[in-house]
């Protein structure tokens, strides 16, 4: 049986990882789509072999891992190659995420944290959507400081993601992460209480519905 699932997303530099890490300290099970994405292209995987055959030997480093920097440079300049890569990886990632979401959990709800939750069909796997939100200027500032990346490269990533306006329009809950980590944690603690109540309500409704169907 599928767990009650909350999708957590946000643009680059918004603080998704910090939010997910804090929810884990509250006892919430977290499935990280980025970790799943790395798993499906692990050395020896079917996907990595397909990528190497399509993009050439430069797409794999000397240790047998995916050369992400090289691949990123290729797909940013060639949109059709991005389409090819997504057609290969997205179904594999979704399948593994679905398997993980169906695994038994003692958590009142399960969080799927994904930067592409709303850009792909991963949103169909969740019951509620939480968006970690910051202004685009702050995304650029935080990402360039954290990743030692150029503003231009970060802007290219942002262009591949849903716009801030569109992302917010699809949110059930919004966490404003413009301030301190303490304030982020307080908002998440309040949200956790709300989500616990919602998941309990949904569980009671399901039990009641199942009981009626067996009468």
TrEMBL record:
CDD domains: DPCK. Its EC number is 2.7.1.24. Pathway: Cofactor biosynthesis; coenzyme A biosynthesis; CoA from (R)-pantothenate: step 5/5. It catalyses: 3'-dephospho-CoA + ATP = ADP + CoA + H(+). One of its GO terms (biological process) is coenzyme A biosynthetic process. GO terms for molecular function: ATP binding; dephospho-CoA kinase activity. GO terms for cellular component: cytoplasm. SUPFAM superfamilies: P-loop containing nucleoside triphosphate hydrolases (SSF52540). The keyword Kinase applies. Keywords: ATP-binding, Coenzyme A biosynthesis, Cytoplasm, Kinase, Nucleotide-binding, Transferase. ATP binds at residues 13-18. Its main location: cytoplasm. It is found in: Cytoplasm. InterPro entries: Depp_CoAkinase (IPR001977), P-loop_NTPase (IPR027417). Pfam families: CoaE. Belongs to the CoaE family. PANTHER family: BIFUNCTIONAL COENZYME A SYNTHASE-RELATED, DEPHOSPHO-COA KINASE-RELATED. HAMAP family: Dephospho_CoA_kinase. Catalyzes the phosphorylation of the 3'-hydroxyl group of dephosphocoenzyme A to form coenzyme A. This is Dephospho-CoA kinase. It comes from Nitrincola tibetensis. The gene is coaE.
